Amino acid sequence: MKEKPVLGVIIGNRDFFPDRLVAEARVEIRDVLNKLQITPVMLDENQSKLGGVETFQEAQRCADLFKQHRDEIVGVLVVLPNFGDEKGVAETLKLAKLDVPVLIQAYPDSLNQLDVARRRDAWCGKISVCNNLYQFGIKYTLTEKHVVSPQDETFQRDLQNFVAVCRVVKGLRNVRIGAVGARPGAFNTVRYSEKILQRHGISVTTVDLSSILGAAEKMDKEAATVKERMEKMRNYAAMGRTPQEALVQMAKLDVALTDFMEENALDATAIQCWTSLQQNWGCNVCTSMSIMSENMLPSACEVDVTGTLSMYAMQLASGSPSALVDWNNNYADDENKCVLFHCGNWAKSFLPDIEVSTAPILGTSVGEENTYGALAGRTPASPLTYGRISTDDTKGIIKAYIGEGQLTDDPLNTFGTRAVAQIPDLQGLMKYVCRTGFEHHVVMNASKTADILKEALENYMGWEVYQHV
């Protein structure tokens, strides 16, 4: 069962506005959060005036409450039922030191209730709160509408998107990635800066491929763990013409990789493949990578560490698996369509016709019999968010591009894992990718989450982000 996200809630107040607006907002916002399966952490009515925050003493009490739930709170919601006290909000966040995303909501006034008894002025108060947070250096997120009722569907969508932003930020600040083996010599494109990543909380644990292969080599094919993994693979995908000996090799390698991940508490992996695995072990690792990605432990080939970081970010935003793909081919003469391809490691979610197969292109150099374990399947029409995170070592920064489009059911007669994408102004996007030095790998996710990623990566992570529209 998924855990409910926990938000700290600050209800702003200013004493020369009607108190009952605060009391009403407290009940209303709790009901909305309960409806959306979000757990609030907020002051009780007996801890401050009506559970709101105005004075410095109330800010201290609210900050102390937040500190008690530091490990649970993923973000803070600021509610302004009236003008609110901007210093009270800012001081609470400063004292709590949570360093989490903050969403600012302000109530709208009614034209027939602009009297002293019901006047809110939250339109103006929101500007003042944001001004103070800006002065304090506290990052914050805005609602689609400047003022909006908690019952408005746009606010509830804002809130759900904000929770996704919180997920991305928390996940990226603590992610642990395993780099298995050396980057293939011919793939300069996947070079990255481990030091720049670490500066942003992203840890990379390296292991020599020989250590993994050595551990796999020592395993008895009759071992319970190997047999269990073989059965898991049979249940995961149709085996096609995969021989038993290749399945044994795939299972041993999978057990060794799983042990490495568990020993190092890893969230994702990037694995050397082309062509060491085929030459020195005799199979592809694609099926294992697909299973990991399907289980929300994303795995990228060719030791593309920032590629798997991109997969992880998109997974956090959408709650669904991601896939690493090549920007691979034009689609006939349609300038806004292209073919996405890889020799076979996409998560099962993308491949309703999934089958374990071989990698024909790789097989031309290493022998196709050494490439069992690659997957074949066609991704059907679905929503598409695409993007890429990369370290720009010359500038000393992390940068990204993101956008949305569609995966289509257009005919595509080829092998491997494959899809057709339709993207507005695709030619302009390709110019941007080429001119700014991004990799040939991109990540796809069956969602519409570009806005969430933009907010999380640019506003809170502080990265340079281009959103293609």
From TrEMBL:
List keywords of the entry alphabetically.
Carbohydrate metabolism, Isomerase
Gene Ontology annotations for the cellular component aspect, listed alphabetically: cytoplasm
Q: Which GO terms describe its biological process?
A: fucose metabolic process
| Pfam entry (one) | Fucose_iso_C
Would the keyword Transferase turn up in this protein's UniProt record?
no
Please state the span of the N-terminal signal peptide per the UniProt entry: none
- Which positions fall inside the L-fucose isomerase C-terminal domain? 340-466
| Name of the featured protein | L-fucose isomerase
